[in-house]
Amino acid sequence: MAEPIISSSIFSIFIMLLHLILSRSELHINDQLKVTTPPLPILPLPSYSQLKWQQREIIMFHHFGVNTFNDSEWGTGRESPHIFNPTRLDTNQWADAAAHAGVSLVILTAKHHDGFCLWPSRYTDHSVIGSPWKHGRGDVVREFVDAFKARNIDSGLYLSPWDRHDPRYGHANKYNEYYLAQLQELLMRYGSVKEIWFDGAKGPNTPNMTYYFKDWFSMVKELQSTINIFSDAGPDVRWVGDEKGFAGSTCWSTINRTSLSIGNASIVDYINKGDPKGTDWLPAECDVSIRTGWFWHKSQSPKKLSELLEIYYKSVGRNCVLLLNVPPNSTGLIPESDVRRLKQFRQAIDTIFSSNLALKCSAHASSQRGVGSSDYKPENVLDDDHLWTYWTPSEKEIRGGDWIEFRALTGKIKFNVVRIQEAIGLGQRIKKHEIYVDGEMVAKGTTVGYKKLHRLEKGIVEALSVRIKIVEAKGVPLISSFGLHFDPFWNPKEEVDT
Fold first, then answer.
1. Is residue 86 within 8 Å of residue 328, measured between CB atoms?
2. 127 vs 157, 170, 276, 332, CA distance in Å?
3. Among 353, 387, 415, where does a domain finish?
């Protein structure tokens, strides 16, 4: 039988189709090779939990305990549990207040320096067990975590290392065993805890006491691996060094943990500013109370809205998270005056930052990494992703002089606040920057980090162009977000001194 014969014309068409398929595949591979990769990170980098924490911006503290009924800030440890009797305690009301303030994490003082425990601990009777509240069968910690969980608000806990009541305090092994036992109770009994708060407080005439912080921290991470541990020295979040809520005008998230120790007053300036050469990512948390004291006192009132906004600009606006204490009163409720102030505070922040006037501008830059690529174009700073999309200039050996500029599309823009954010997922980089409005320098600063807010000293300006110049950086800068905002609540002449 004769074999089939393929005509030359059909064979030619087959060869042409094969060449076309192969050439298209080659073009696709070449296109992939031409895609510009992101720049190398600059170490150290934040962990996933640290990034989530940073994005919270404002979190809340509740100081509550026997001091609430004793008009005191530091209890003696000799208070009778019988004085703790919050007849109207309602943690749902606390959670509602936090929700109205736009807060996603709240920390409770499970035990303060007086040693009184807000939960029925198996290891002491100096707790709600001895209280007339709910006939000794109450549990503030349980009610707290349940109420906040129902509103999708995360919980945190503070267990004071200093205990002025327990006789084991001053005996290192015995007290550290006691402390670890209570730590295990809290972290195993009440579900997920997103932040645990430690300090090194010791008052005058205190017995010599060594805290086994390394043991404590190891136990915490074993029980809840995604938790953030706060202390003067981290390991996840550091103290800012004051209780005014103010970070340094220069504030690095990086620092050297080997230079830190908990309770050491000599490190205050260092932790307030951070360290550009730091080997550890350890961002700062700014703690301050809405009132003068940390516990509720009938004679005190909440801070004015202008004061809270000043704190916001000098904490969140300086690359930190604001921890705002709001103390329940002796009935067990957040005072209405404080609830109103929290609502005003949130409404003011939303009024200022919900509208970004830079969206009425076109974006231009000195250069762009991967020319023609959309991955690093200047317009990326105007999208909704404040972490992983960004503008970055082209690589060069010596940094300095890179800029990104925003030009109004229709008429002048009226604003008094400039917001700049870095893509900190690849490291903190900017060391110095300047802001120019229609060619005139109106502000300058050092670090940026997750968020830098400039309230212009000259007040409200109307401009056709705004340029951010990166004067000095640790590497190629990455700007993830930019905003121009109008703050109607601020008068430069009334600024609170730092």
1. yes
2. 16, 20, 45, 16
3. 353
Judge whether 163 and 169 are in contact, CB under 8 Å.
yes
Place of tokens 């009610």: 143
Rounded to an integer, the average pLDDT of 439-456 is 98
On whether both 277 and 144 belong to a single domain, the answer is: yes
Tell me, yes or no, whether 318 and 414 share the same domain. Answer: no
Higher pLDDT, 403 or 207: 403
**Which pLDDT band holds residue 373 (cuts at 50, 70, 90)?**
confident
Put simply, whether the predicted model's pTM sits higher than 0.90 gets the answer yes
pLDDT for residue 19: 56
- Residue 276 pLDDT greater than 70, yes or no: yes
Coil vs helix vs strand at 72 = coil
How far is residue 162's CA from residue 158's CA, in Å, rounded to a whole number?
11
For 147-166, the pLDDT digits (tens) are 999 999 999 999 999 999 99
Residues 372 and 249 grouped into a single domain: no
| pLDDT value of residue 205 | 83
| DSSP output for 225-276 | TTPEEEETT-SSEEE-S-SSS---SS--SEE-GGG--TT-GGGHHHHHH--T
Residues 349 and 361 in one domain: no
Number of domains composing the chain: 2
Q: Shortest CA distance to 449 belongs to which of 327, 334, 294, 283?
A: 283
Question: What single DSSP character describes residue 438?
Answer: T
Asked, for residue 342, whether it belongs to a domain, the answer is: yes
Residues 332 and 408 both lie in one domain: no
Which parts of 106-200 fold into alpha helices (H)?
140-150, 172-189
Which of 270, 203, 208 lies closest to 233 in space, CA to CA? 270
Token couple for 196: 């645990």
Q: What is the pLDDT of residues 42-100, one digit of tens each?
A: 999 999 999 999 999 999 999 999 999 999 999 999 999 999 999 999 999 999 999 99
Range of the structural domain that residue 236 is part of: 48-353
288 three-state secondary structure = strand
CB atoms within 10 A of CB 119: 24
Amino acid at 33: L
In a domain, 256, yes or no: yes
In percent, the amount of the chain with pLDDT more than 90 equals 86
The answer to whether residues 380 and 335 belong to one domain is: no
